Amino acid sequence: MTPFVTDVSAPAKRFLAALLPLAFLSAPLPLLAQPASQASADDLPLEEIQTFAEVFERIKRGYVEEVDDRTLLRNAMRGMLSELDPHSAYLDEEEYQSLRESTQGEFGGIGIEVGMENGQLMVVTPIDDTPASRAGLLSRDVIIAIDGTPTDSMSLQEAVTMMRGEPGSQLRISVLRTGEETPRSFTLTREVIRSESVKHELLEPGYGYLRISQFQSRTPEQARQAIERMQRDAPLEGLILDLRNNPGGVLQAAAGVADLFLDSGLIVYTEGRLADTAMSFSASRDTPAGDVPLVVLINSGSASAAEIVAGALQDQRRGVIMGTDSFGKGSVQQIMPLGNGEGLKLTTALYYTPNGRSIQAQGIEPDVEVVRGRLELAESRLELRESDLDGHLGAQQPMTQSRQSASERLRDDYQMSEALNLLKALNVVDRRRR
Description:
One of its GO terms (molecular function) is serine-type peptidase activity. Keywords: Hydrolase, Protease, Serine protease, Signal. This protein is of the alpha+beta class. Among the domains are: about 30 residues, no CATH class; about 90 residues, Pdz3 Domain (Roll); about 170 residues, 2-enoyl-CoA Hydratase, Chain A, domain 1. The chain is built from 12 helices and 19 strands. Strands 3, 4, 5, 6, 7 and 8 form a 6-stranded antiparallel sheet that branches. Strands 10-11-12-15-16-19 form a 6-stranded mixed sheet, with helices on both faces. Strands 1, 13, 14, 17 and 18 form a 5-stranded antiparallel sheet that branches. Helix 8 links the parallel strand 11 and strand 12. The N terminus is likely disordered.
Protein backbone atom coordinates (compact mmCIF):
# COMPACT_ATOMS: atom_id res chain seq x y z
CA MET A 1 0.00 0.00 0.00
CA THR A 2 1.27 3.45 -0.85
CA PRO A 3 2.25 5.29 2.36
CA PHE A 4 0.64 8.59 3.34
CA VAL A 5 2.19 11.76 2.01
CA THR A 6 3.37 13.61 5.09
CA ASP A 7 4.76 16.70 3.41
CA VAL A 8 1.77 18.96 3.87
CA SER A 9 1.60 22.60 4.83
CA ALA A 10 0.77 24.01 8.25
CA PRO A 11 -2.85 24.90 7.26
CA ALA A 12 -3.40 21.34 6.10
CA LYS A 13 -1.95 19.99 9.37
CA ARG A 14 -4.30 22.21 11.33
CA PHE A 15 -7.16 20.99 9.17
CA LEU A 16 -6.21 17.37 9.87
CA ALA A 17 -5.96 18.05 13.59
CA ALA A 18 -9.47 19.52 13.58
CA LEU A 19 -10.86 16.38 12.01
CA LEU A 20 -9.11 13.78 14.13
CA PRO A 21 -10.37 12.53 17.48
CA LEU A 22 -8.71 13.75 20.64
CA ALA A 23 -6.68 10.56 20.90
CA PHE A 24 -4.70 11.59 17.85
CA LEU A 25 -4.19 15.25 18.63
CA SER A 26 -0.94 14.72 20.54
CA ALA A 27 0.54 12.37 17.93
CA PRO A 28 3.04 13.69 15.35
CA LEU A 29 1.73 13.67 11.80
CA PRO A 30 4.04 10.85 10.54
CA LEU A 31 2.31 8.51 12.99
CA LEU A 32 -0.73 8.66 10.71
CA ALA A 33 1.15 6.77 8.03
CA GLN A 34 0.06 3.38 9.35
CA PRO A 35 -1.82 1.29 6.76
CA ALA A 36 -5.60 1.42 6.96
CA SER A 37 -5.71 -2.37 7.51
CA GLN A 38 -4.04 -1.92 10.92
CA ALA A 39 -6.62 0.53 12.13
CA SER A 40 -9.53 -0.45 14.32
CA ALA A 41 -12.97 -0.60 12.73
CA ASP A 42 -14.01 2.31 15.00
CA ASP A 43 -11.12 4.56 13.93
CA LEU A 44 -11.50 7.32 11.37
CA PRO A 45 -10.42 6.35 7.82
CA LEU A 46 -7.03 8.09 8.09
CA GLU A 47 -6.04 7.59 4.48
CA GLU A 48 -9.18 9.31 3.22
CA ILE A 49 -8.71 12.15 5.72
CA GLN A 50 -5.14 12.62 4.51
CA THR A 51 -6.36 12.65 0.91
CA PHE A 52 -9.03 15.17 1.84
CA ALA A 53 -6.39 17.43 3.35
CA GLU A 54 -4.23 17.04 0.26
CA VAL A 55 -7.10 17.99 -2.05
CA PHE A 56 -7.90 20.93 0.22
CA GLU A 57 -4.27 22.11 0.03
CA ARG A 58 -4.01 21.72 -3.75
CA ILE A 59 -7.15 23.77 -4.28
CA LYS A 60 -5.79 26.45 -1.96
CA ARG A 61 -2.48 26.62 -3.84
CA GLY A 62 -3.42 25.99 -7.44
CA TYR A 63 -7.02 26.95 -8.19
CA VAL A 64 -7.26 29.70 -10.81
CA GLU A 65 -8.91 32.05 -8.31
CA GLU A 66 -8.15 32.43 -4.63
CA VAL A 67 -10.64 30.60 -2.43
CA ASP A 68 -10.84 31.15 1.32
CA ASP A 69 -10.90 28.29 3.81
CA ARG A 70 -14.46 29.06 4.93
CA THR A 71 -15.85 28.66 1.39
CA LEU A 72 -13.98 25.42 0.82
CA LEU A 73 -15.17 23.92 4.09
CA ARG A 74 -18.79 24.94 3.49
CA ASN A 75 -18.70 23.43 0.01
CA ALA A 76 -17.23 20.26 1.47
CA MET A 77 -20.08 20.02 3.98
CA ARG A 78 -22.65 20.65 1.27
CA GLY A 79 -21.17 17.92 -0.88
CA MET A 80 -20.98 15.52 2.05
CA LEU A 81 -24.74 15.86 2.67
CA SER A 82 -25.94 16.14 -0.92
CA GLU A 83 -24.34 12.81 -1.81
CA LEU A 84 -26.35 10.98 0.86
CA ASP A 85 -29.79 11.34 -0.72
CA PRO A 86 -31.83 14.01 -2.55
CA HIS A 87 -33.34 15.41 0.66
CA SER A 88 -30.37 15.83 3.02
CA ALA A 89 -28.66 19.22 2.85
CA TYR A 90 -26.48 21.75 4.64
CA LEU A 91 -28.46 24.94 5.21
CA ASP A 92 -26.81 28.31 5.53
CA GLU A 93 -28.57 30.94 7.62
CA GLU A 94 -30.75 32.17 4.75
CA GLU A 95 -31.70 28.66 3.65
CA TYR A 96 -32.43 27.60 7.22
CA GLN A 97 -34.74 30.55 7.74
CA SER A 98 -36.39 29.95 4.37
CA LEU A 99 -37.18 26.36 5.28
CA ARG A 100 -38.66 27.41 8.61
CA GLU A 101 -40.85 29.96 6.83
CA SER A 102 -42.19 27.42 4.36
CA THR A 103 -43.07 25.03 7.20
CA GLN A 104 -44.93 27.83 8.96
CA GLY A 105 -46.80 28.66 5.76
CA GLU A 106 -45.38 32.02 4.57
CA PHE A 107 -42.45 32.81 2.28
CA GLY A 108 -41.53 34.86 -0.79
CA GLY A 109 -41.33 32.96 -4.06
CA ILE A 110 -43.31 31.39 -6.88
CA GLY A 111 -45.05 28.64 -4.90
CA ILE A 112 -43.39 25.47 -6.10
CA GLU A 113 -42.13 22.30 -4.42
CA VAL A 114 -39.10 20.75 -6.10
CA GLY A 115 -36.96 17.64 -5.68
CA MET A 116 -34.05 15.83 -7.30
CA GLU A 117 -34.54 12.68 -9.37
CA ASN A 118 -31.67 11.04 -11.25
CA GLY A 119 -29.67 14.25 -10.92
CA GLN A 120 -32.45 16.38 -12.44
CA LEU A 121 -34.30 19.21 -10.73
CA MET A 122 -37.95 18.24 -10.93
CA VAL A 123 -41.25 19.83 -9.99
CA VAL A 124 -42.89 17.75 -7.27
CA THR A 125 -45.95 19.97 -7.27
CA PRO A 126 -47.02 23.59 -7.66
CA ILE A 127 -48.81 24.97 -4.59
CA ASP A 128 -52.43 25.98 -5.12
CA ASP A 129 -53.21 29.59 -6.05
CA THR A 130 -49.59 30.67 -6.57
CA PRO A 131 -47.70 32.03 -9.60
CA ALA A 132 -46.43 28.52 -10.40
CA SER A 133 -49.88 26.91 -10.45
CA ARG A 134 -51.47 29.80 -12.36
CA ALA A 135 -48.72 29.65 -15.00
CA GLY A 136 -49.45 25.99 -15.63
CA LEU A 137 -46.38 24.26 -14.22
CA LEU A 138 -47.05 20.55 -13.69
CA SER A 139 -45.78 17.77 -11.48
CA ARG A 140 -42.71 16.04 -12.98
CA ASP A 141 -41.73 19.01 -15.16
CA VAL A 142 -37.91 19.01 -15.28
CA ILE A 143 -36.43 22.46 -14.54
CA ILE A 144 -33.39 22.81 -16.79
CA ALA A 145 -32.53 26.48 -16.14
CA ILE A 146 -33.27 29.21 -13.58
CA ASP A 147 -32.72 32.78 -14.80
CA GLY A 148 -30.53 31.37 -17.56
CA THR A 149 -28.36 29.30 -15.19
CA PRO A 150 -28.37 25.57 -16.01
CA THR A 151 -29.48 23.36 -13.13
CA ASP A 152 -27.49 20.24 -14.07
CA SER A 153 -24.77 20.98 -11.50
CA MET A 154 -27.00 22.78 -9.01
CA SER A 155 -27.91 21.37 -5.60
CA LEU A 156 -31.50 21.30 -4.42
CA GLN A 157 -30.91 24.00 -1.84
CA GLU A 158 -29.16 26.24 -4.37
CA ALA A 159 -32.16 25.93 -6.67
CA VAL A 160 -34.61 26.73 -3.88
CA THR A 161 -32.55 29.76 -2.86
CA MET A 162 -32.52 31.07 -6.44
CA MET A 163 -36.28 30.70 -6.78
CA ARG A 164 -37.05 32.44 -3.49
CA GLY A 165 -36.83 36.22 -3.52
CA GLU A 166 -38.48 39.56 -2.93
CA PRO A 167 -42.18 39.82 -3.83
CA GLY A 168 -42.62 41.66 -7.12
CA SER A 169 -39.32 40.50 -8.61
CA GLN A 170 -39.37 38.28 -11.69
CA LEU A 171 -38.00 34.80 -12.19
CA ARG A 172 -37.49 33.00 -15.49
CA ILE A 173 -37.36 29.23 -15.57
CA SER A 174 -37.11 26.75 -18.43
CA VAL A 175 -38.72 23.34 -18.09
CA LEU A 176 -38.81 20.17 -20.15
CA ARG A 177 -42.14 18.40 -20.01
CA THR A 178 -42.58 14.66 -20.41
CA GLY A 179 -43.21 13.75 -24.04
CA GLU A 180 -41.96 17.08 -25.38
CA GLU A 181 -38.62 17.81 -27.05
CA THR A 182 -38.68 21.61 -26.89
CA PRO A 183 -38.29 23.31 -23.49
CA ARG A 184 -40.97 25.68 -22.26
CA SER A 185 -40.05 29.04 -20.76
CA PHE A 186 -42.00 30.67 -17.95
CA THR A 187 -41.55 34.19 -16.57
CA LEU A 188 -43.12 34.41 -13.12
CA THR A 189 -43.52 37.26 -10.66
CA ARG A 190 -42.68 36.32 -7.09
CA GLU A 191 -45.33 36.84 -4.45
CA VAL A 192 -45.63 36.49 -0.71
CA ILE A 193 -46.79 32.90 -0.55
CA ARG A 194 -49.26 32.63 2.29
CA SER A 195 -50.40 29.13 1.67
CA GLU A 196 -53.63 28.30 3.46
CA SER A 197 -53.29 24.56 3.51
CA VAL A 198 -57.01 23.71 3.84
CA LYS A 199 -60.01 24.56 1.66
CA HIS A 200 -63.50 23.11 1.70
CA GLU A 201 -66.90 23.34 0.06
CA LEU A 202 -70.12 21.40 -0.47
CA LEU A 203 -70.19 20.05 -4.02
CA GLU A 204 -73.82 19.01 -3.58
CA PRO A 205 -76.08 18.82 -0.55
CA GLY A 206 -74.56 16.20 1.73
CA TYR A 207 -71.35 15.74 -0.27
CA GLY A 208 -68.28 17.62 0.92
CA TYR A 209 -64.90 18.41 -0.60
CA LEU A 210 -61.81 18.88 1.59
CA ARG A 211 -58.62 20.04 -0.13
CA ILE A 212 -55.28 19.89 1.73
CA SER A 213 -52.46 21.46 -0.30
CA GLN A 214 -49.64 20.80 2.20
CA PHE A 215 -49.15 19.77 5.82
CA GLN A 216 -48.29 22.63 8.14
CA SER A 217 -48.41 22.81 11.92
CA ARG A 218 -52.01 24.11 11.99
CA THR A 219 -53.38 21.85 9.23
CA PRO A 220 -55.10 19.26 11.50
CA GLU A 221 -57.05 21.94 13.36
CA GLN A 222 -57.97 23.73 10.13
CA ALA A 223 -59.18 20.45 8.62
CA ARG A 224 -61.24 19.68 11.73
CA GLN A 225 -62.91 23.09 11.55
CA ALA A 226 -63.65 22.61 7.84
CA ILE A 227 -65.33 19.25 8.46
CA GLU A 228 -67.42 20.70 11.29
CA ARG A 229 -68.53 23.62 9.10
CA MET A 230 -69.64 21.28 6.31
CA GLN A 231 -71.70 19.28 8.85
CA ARG A 232 -73.22 22.32 10.52
CA ASP A 233 -76.58 22.13 8.73
CA ALA A 234 -76.80 18.40 8.03
CA PRO A 235 -74.64 15.27 8.38
CA LEU A 236 -72.36 14.50 5.46
CA GLU A 237 -73.30 11.59 3.22
CA GLY A 238 -69.85 11.49 1.65
CA LEU A 239 -66.54 13.34 1.63
CA ILE A 240 -63.76 13.76 -0.95
CA LEU A 241 -60.31 14.30 0.58
CA ASP A 242 -58.10 15.82 -2.13
CA LEU A 243 -54.37 15.22 -1.59
CA ARG A 244 -53.34 15.66 -5.22
CA ASN A 245 -50.18 17.71 -5.76
CA ASN A 246 -49.63 17.82 -1.99
CA PRO A 247 -45.84 17.81 -1.46
CA GLY A 248 -46.03 16.78 2.21
CA GLY A 249 -44.77 18.74 5.19
CA VAL A 250 -44.84 18.09 8.93
CA LEU A 251 -45.04 14.42 9.97
CA GLN A 252 -47.12 15.17 13.08
CA ALA A 253 -49.59 17.15 10.98
CA ALA A 254 -50.13 14.16 8.67
CA ALA A 255 -50.83 11.92 11.66
CA GLY A 256 -53.23 14.54 13.00
CA VAL A 257 -55.20 14.69 9.76
CA ALA A 258 -55.44 10.89 9.48
CA ASP A 259 -56.72 10.86 13.08
CA LEU A 260 -59.71 12.96 11.98
CA PHE A 261 -61.01 9.93 10.08
CA LEU A 262 -59.82 7.06 12.30
CA ASP A 263 -60.97 6.23 15.83
CA SER A 264 -58.43 3.50 16.60
CA GLY A 265 -55.36 1.70 15.32
CA LEU A 266 -51.93 2.63 14.04
CA ILE A 267 -51.48 5.56 11.66
CA VAL A 268 -47.75 5.52 10.89
CA TYR A 269 -44.45 4.52 12.48
CA THR A 270 -40.85 5.41 11.72
CA GLU A 271 -37.58 3.51 12.07
CA GLY A 272 -34.03 4.84 12.01
CA ARG A 273 -30.61 4.11 13.49
CA LEU A 274 -31.05 6.31 16.56
CA ALA A 275 -33.50 5.57 19.36
CA ASP A 276 -35.19 8.97 19.13
CA THR A 277 -36.03 8.42 15.44
CA ALA A 278 -38.33 5.50 16.27
CA MET A 279 -41.81 6.97 16.60
CA SER A 280 -45.36 5.75 16.19
CA PHE A 281 -48.69 7.54 15.96
CA SER A 282 -52.06 5.98 16.74
CA ALA A 283 -55.59 7.25 16.28
CA SER A 284 -57.68 8.63 19.13
CA ARG A 285 -61.39 7.98 19.61
CA ASP A 286 -62.28 11.61 18.93
CA THR A 287 -63.05 11.87 15.21
CA PRO A 288 -65.26 14.54 13.61
CA ALA A 289 -65.69 12.57 10.38
CA GLY A 290 -67.15 9.49 12.08
CA ASP A 291 -68.01 6.84 9.51
CA VAL A 292 -68.70 9.25 6.64
CA PRO A 293 -67.98 7.48 3.31
CA LEU A 294 -64.59 8.74 2.13
CA VAL A 295 -62.75 8.90 -1.20
CA VAL A 296 -59.12 10.08 -1.17
CA LEU A 297 -57.68 11.58 -4.38
CA ILE A 298 -53.92 11.18 -5.02
CA ASN A 299 -51.57 11.57 -7.98
CA SER A 300 -47.85 11.65 -8.78
CA GLY A 301 -47.57 14.98 -6.95
CA SER A 302 -48.81 13.48 -3.67
CA ALA A 303 -45.67 12.99 -1.60
CA SER A 304 -44.36 12.29 1.89
CA ALA A 305 -46.94 13.37 4.49
CA ALA A 306 -49.73 13.08 1.90
CA GLU A 307 -48.70 9.47 1.34
CA ILE A 308 -48.74 8.86 5.10
CA VAL A 309 -52.41 9.86 5.24
CA ALA A 310 -53.35 7.91 2.11
CA GLY A 311 -51.44 4.83 3.28
CA ALA A 312 -53.02 4.85 6.74
CA LEU A 313 -56.55 5.22 5.40
CA GLN A 314 -55.91 2.53 2.80
CA ASP A 315 -54.44 0.01 5.26
CA GLN A 316 -57.26 0.60 7.74
CA ARG A 317 -59.82 0.36 4.91
CA ARG A 318 -61.30 3.66 6.00
CA GLY A 319 -61.71 5.04 2.48
CA VAL A 320 -61.23 4.37 -1.20
CA ILE A 321 -57.96 5.69 -2.65
CA MET A 322 -58.56 7.00 -6.17
CA GLY A 323 -56.35 8.58 -8.84
CA THR A 324 -52.84 7.59 -9.93
CA ASP A 325 -49.68 6.32 -8.18
CA SER A 326 -48.20 8.76 -5.65
CA PHE A 327 -44.65 10.16 -5.68
CA GLY A 328 -42.95 7.63 -3.38
CA LYS A 329 -41.08 9.71 -0.78
CA GLY A 330 -41.01 7.51 2.31
CA SER A 331 -38.19 9.14 4.27
CA VAL A 332 -38.25 11.48 7.26
CA GLN A 333 -35.99 14.53 7.57
CA GLN A 334 -35.05 16.26 10.80
CA ILE A 335 -34.10 19.94 10.79
CA MET A 336 -31.13 20.30 13.14
CA PRO A 337 -30.06 23.82 14.17
CA LEU A 338 -26.33 24.49 14.44
CA GLY A 339 -24.65 26.84 16.84
CA ASN A 340 -23.81 29.37 14.11
CA GLY A 341 -27.44 30.05 13.16
CA GLU A 342 -27.35 27.58 10.30
CA GLY A 343 -28.70 24.04 10.13
CA LEU A 344 -28.79 20.56 8.70
CA LYS A 345 -31.66 18.83 6.98
CA LEU A 346 -30.83 15.17 7.51
CA THR A 347 -32.71 12.03 6.55
CA THR A 348 -32.91 10.09 9.81
CA ALA A 349 -35.66 7.50 9.32
CA LEU A 350 -38.08 5.77 6.98
CA TYR A 351 -41.79 5.74 7.71
CA TYR A 352 -44.10 2.75 7.37
CA THR A 353 -47.84 2.42 6.91
CA PRO A 354 -49.87 0.49 9.53
CA ASN A 355 -49.39 -2.77 7.60
CA GLY A 356 -45.60 -2.28 7.56
CA ARG A 357 -45.31 -1.00 4.00
CA SER A 358 -42.42 1.29 3.12
CA ILE A 359 -43.42 3.37 0.14
CA GLN A 360 -39.91 4.76 -0.44
CA ALA A 361 -39.44 4.91 -4.23
CA GLN A 362 -42.64 2.85 -4.57
CA GLY A 363 -45.54 5.17 -3.83
CA ILE A 364 -49.14 4.45 -2.88
CA GLU A 365 -51.07 2.53 -5.51
CA PRO A 366 -54.70 3.70 -5.68
CA ASP A 367 -57.57 1.25 -5.17
CA VAL A 368 -59.26 2.75 -8.22
CA GLU A 369 -57.06 4.18 -10.95
CA VAL A 370 -58.50 7.25 -12.63
CA VAL A 371 -56.34 9.54 -14.76
CA ARG A 372 -56.90 13.25 -14.67
CA GLY A 373 -58.95 14.71 -17.48
CA ARG A 374 -61.91 16.86 -18.43
CA LEU A 375 -65.45 15.62 -18.78
CA GLU A 376 -66.61 16.32 -22.31
CA LEU A 377 -70.30 15.87 -23.10
CA ALA A 378 -71.02 14.79 -26.67
CA GLU A 379 -73.49 17.03 -28.48
CA SER A 380 -76.63 15.39 -29.80
CA ARG A 381 -79.54 16.93 -31.71
CA LEU A 382 -81.87 14.32 -30.22
CA GLU A 383 -81.40 15.54 -26.65
CA LEU A 384 -84.15 17.94 -25.62
CA ARG A 385 -84.99 19.22 -22.17
CA GLU A 386 -87.79 21.32 -20.74
CA SER A 387 -85.47 24.29 -20.42
CA ASP A 388 -84.94 24.23 -24.22
CA LEU A 389 -88.65 24.80 -24.98
CA ASP A 390 -89.91 28.29 -25.71
CA GLY A 391 -92.06 29.70 -22.94
CA HIS A 392 -91.04 27.11 -20.33
CA LEU A 393 -91.82 27.89 -16.71
CA GLY A 394 -88.90 29.05 -14.58
CA ALA A 395 -87.55 26.99 -11.67
CA GLN A 396 -88.94 27.86 -8.26
CA GLN A 397 -85.44 27.60 -6.75
CA PRO A 398 -82.80 28.56 -9.32
CA MET A 399 -79.35 27.01 -8.95
CA THR A 400 -77.21 29.03 -6.59
CA GLN A 401 -73.91 30.50 -7.72
CA SER A 402 -71.95 28.14 -5.42
CA ARG A 403 -73.67 25.05 -6.85
CA GLN A 404 -73.11 26.29 -10.38
CA SER A 405 -69.42 26.83 -9.60
CA ALA A 406 -69.15 23.33 -8.14
CA SER A 407 -70.86 21.88 -11.22
CA GLU A 408 -68.34 23.60 -13.48
CA ARG A 409 -65.43 22.29 -11.39
CA LEU A 410 -66.78 18.75 -11.61
CA ARG A 411 -66.99 19.11 -15.38
CA ASP A 412 -63.37 20.31 -15.53
CA ASP A 413 -62.03 17.69 -13.10
CA TYR A 414 -62.77 14.13 -14.17
CA GLN A 415 -61.17 12.56 -11.10
CA MET A 416 -63.30 14.63 -8.73
CA SER A 417 -66.41 13.82 -10.74
CA GLU A 418 -65.66 10.10 -10.54
CA ALA A 419 -65.01 10.39 -6.80
CA LEU A 420 -68.42 11.99 -6.28
CA ASN A 421 -70.10 9.30 -8.40
CA LEU A 422 -68.40 6.59 -6.32
CA LEU A 423 -69.59 8.17 -3.06
CA LYS A 424 -73.15 8.24 -4.35
CA ALA A 425 -72.90 4.61 -5.42
CA LEU A 426 -71.57 3.61 -2.00
CA ASN A 427 -74.56 5.29 -0.36
CA VAL A 428 -77.01 3.51 -2.67
CA VAL A 429 -75.45 0.13 -1.82
CA ASP A 430 -75.44 0.97 1.89
CA ARG A 431 -79.15 1.92 1.86
CA ARG A 432 -80.09 -1.31 0.09
CA ARG A 433 -78.27 -3.36 2.74
CA ARG A 434 -80.26 -1.82 5.59
